[in-house]
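Propose amino acids for all 696 sites.
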């Protein structure tokens, strides 16, 4: 590795006093995005990064070509039926973005679509490449066709700051309407007749807090709901039956739902049940009744039913189970499907309604009595409902993958219980799943808890193998066993890839999440260290490179402080490493909402002390640290760029070891660069750095 002089960030001591504790932050000035010194420093870091990694350019290009060569660039999705149309997306070789299309539904069978060939009467709904033009960044926030199939609502972002502009397109004529609404958030919902579209706006803290109704052809939109509690965010959707608009308000721990007959868009939303702190619930329309999935006195959630007239009175249907976390309920005209989690894996439970007789209570009860679960053959996998827009159907569309099985789309025939494979993502270059194998290991945490680890490697790979260990561990987000084309570039070079399913995620049920948040957050970090040590002690690994992003980037910073000696390198992507300072500032995006996840250090001295004990930026010391690659984006609104910038500056000034590298995308957001070829090059860059760290 070449030895260039790294940038040295100037120190401008800024004093902060909270709960009697005085802290000096020398790099707080980096939070000023408009300061020329900030831009100059970030650009100097990018220049240093290029110099330090210039010797990896050949390997980067090789890995990029491997990713590109294994990917069928001209491809398409499986068509989904909605009303009179089959909808699908195309990707074309050489183009960065997908193209959304549809064809008339002449029969119940999906059309036979060939990559690269157009169908008769095929209509392009939205061409991302045409919309993106020469923009360095492009993203679609919503793309929603009206219930009658005649209008498209879509929103675009050209900066990466997740502020979208909403437009409308007449799909019958191709005309773009003059209606244009700036600064909206993701998502939205149509009224039943397609005359009105509901959307959300965010406040200065980037919290979606308002729902507006836009009537096509008018200029004055109507505010239909505003959430004043800064802990709550709002969203709006249309039920699969297209009977109800559902307006949800939720904090990290509490839900409140309002519903409105979708045929009456100017009517008043009615509340299902007023918010009760700690109670989360969601409502799904099932024809002549509602399903309600809730956690009232049910940590892993319970499924209940309710009448259309009295949706706030809930009758239990599937009782709470300690070993099964109910995730979601999808209702159809003749059946329902429960998505659940058990033993660290996802599953599907089908509730078929009887063909005739009885009221809705009897039918729902009979459906549960006759319920069954769909079996899958692999020991590790991930499955869930996918692309089921039709309310009346005899098939269930599902998505399936594992660490060796590429993403696959199936139709499950409810009458025959047959699984019909519609498409498996092509992996070019002779990929054979039989050449790879996946395993489940269990590490023992400091408190004796068993931590699952999912592992994949190529058959014949010698142990111990260089290992990329991935972790997240926040928001009850589960990192389930899944497939990755870029990962093959590691496995084929003798690496093992592992996921540590640490507490704070949801892999083992709601308690897994509760045991890794607030004042139990340290479990997330010690679980990951325990997983790394288990991988070494059990003979799997010798050199471990850790990787995580966003809240998983906080995990990377924390474990590097806890046990720097365990890691040969660390990749932290858009890392939440200045957590204490961020959560102390309610003016920053999403801070108040996050208090239910991390605690409120601004008003609670105990939370302040606890967070200060683990937040990465506050705990850098002079020990030798492993090489660290931090990747961020200037326009990220979720984890602001200055967090990793400050962290790297402090590491370089305080810690031994390294080197410590910072890569800032100067025109992207939280998800990095938007085009698929650009994203592949970014991944090839990270993987080349990982390969060197694992083999040097």
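Proposal:
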């Amino acid at each position: 590795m070449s030895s260039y002089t790294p940038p040295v960030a100037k120190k401008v001591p800024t004093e902060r006093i909270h709960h009697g504790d005085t802290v000096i932050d020398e790099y707080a000035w980096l939070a000023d995005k408009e300061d020329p010194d900030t831009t100059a420093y970030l650009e100097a870091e990018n220049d240093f990064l290029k110099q330090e990694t210039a010797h990896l350019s050949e390997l980067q290009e090789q890995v990029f070509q491997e990713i590109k060569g294994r990917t069928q660039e001209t491809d398409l999705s499986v068509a989904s039926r909605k009303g009179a149309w089959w909808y699908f997306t195309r990707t074309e070789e050489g183009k960065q973005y997908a193209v959304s299309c549809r064809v008339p539904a002449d029969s119940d069978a999906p059309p036979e679509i060939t990559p690269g060939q157009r169908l008769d009467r095929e209509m392009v709904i939205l061409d991302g490449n045409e919309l993106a033009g020469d923009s360095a960044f492009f993203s679609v926030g919503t793309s929603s066709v009206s219930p009658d199939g005649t209008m498209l609502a879509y929103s675009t972002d050209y900066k990466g700051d997740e502020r979208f502009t909403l437009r409308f397109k007449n799909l019958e004529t191709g005309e773009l309407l003059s209606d244009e609404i700036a600064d909206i958030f993701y998502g939205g919902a149509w009224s039943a007749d397609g005359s009105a579209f509901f959307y959300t706006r965010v406040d200065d803290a980037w919290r979606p807090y308002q729902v507006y109704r836009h009537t096509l052809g008018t200029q004055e939109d109507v505010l239909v709901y505003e959430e004043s509690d800064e802990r709550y965010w709002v969203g709006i959707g249309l039920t699969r039956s297209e009977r109800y608009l559902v307006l949800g308000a939720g904090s990290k721990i509490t839900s409140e739902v309002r519903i409105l007959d979708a045929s009456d868009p100017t009517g008043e939303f009615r509340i299902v049940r007023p918010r009760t702190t700690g109670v989360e619930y969601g409502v799904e329309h099932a024809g002549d009744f509602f399903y309600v999935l809730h956690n009232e006195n049910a940590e892993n959630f319970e499924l209940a039913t309710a009448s259309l007239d009295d949706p706030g009175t809930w009758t239990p249907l599937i009782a709470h189970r300690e070993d099964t976390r109910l995730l979601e309920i999808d209702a159809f005209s003749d059946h329902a499907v429960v998505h659940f989690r058990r033993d660290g894996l996802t599953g599907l439970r089908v509730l078929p309604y009887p063909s005739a007789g009885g009221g809705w209570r009897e039918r729902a009860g009979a459906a549960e009595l006759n319920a069954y679960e769909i079996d899958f053959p692999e020991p590790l996998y991930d499955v869930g409902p996918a692309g089921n827009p039709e309310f009346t159907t005899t098939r269930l569309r599902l998505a399936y993958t594992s660490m060796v099985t590429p993403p696959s789309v199936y139709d499950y025939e409810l009458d025959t219980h047959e699984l019909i494979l519609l498409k498996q993502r092509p992996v070019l270059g002779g990929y054979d799943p039989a050449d790879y194998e996946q395993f489940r290991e269990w590490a023992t945490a400091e408190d004796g808890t068993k931590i699952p680890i999912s592992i994949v490697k190529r058959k014949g790979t010698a142990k111990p193998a260089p290992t990329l260990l991935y972790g997240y561990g926040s928001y009850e987000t589960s990192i389930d066993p899944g497939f990755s084309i870029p990962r093959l570039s590691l496995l084929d070079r003798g690496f093992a890839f592992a996921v540590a399913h640490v507490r704070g995620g949801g892999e083992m049920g709601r308690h897994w999440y509760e045991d890794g948040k607030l004042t139990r957050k340290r479990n997330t970090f010690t679980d990951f260290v325990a997983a790394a040590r288990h991988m070494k002690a059990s003979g799997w690994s010798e050199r471990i490179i850790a990787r995580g992003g966003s809240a998983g980037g906080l995990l990377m910073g924390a474990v590097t402080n806890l046990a720097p000696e365990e890691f040969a390198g660390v990749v932290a992507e858009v890392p939440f490493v200045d957590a204490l300072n961020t959560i102390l500032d309610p003016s920053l995006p999403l801070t108040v909402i996050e208090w239910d996840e991390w605690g409120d250090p601004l008003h609670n001295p105990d939370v302040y002390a606890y967070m200060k004990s683990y937040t990465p930026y506050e705990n850098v010391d002079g020990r030798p640290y492993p090489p660290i690659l931090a990747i961020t984006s200037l326009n990220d609104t979720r984890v602001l760029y200055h967090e990793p910038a400050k962290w790297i500056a402090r590491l370089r000034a305080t810690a031994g070891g390294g080197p410590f590298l910072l890569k800032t995308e100067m025109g992207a957001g939280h998800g990095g660069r938007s085009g698929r070829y650009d994203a592949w090059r970014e991944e090839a860059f990270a993987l080349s750095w990982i390969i060197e760290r694992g083999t040097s």
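The chain has a mean pLDDT of 94. The first helix runs from residue 36 to 53.
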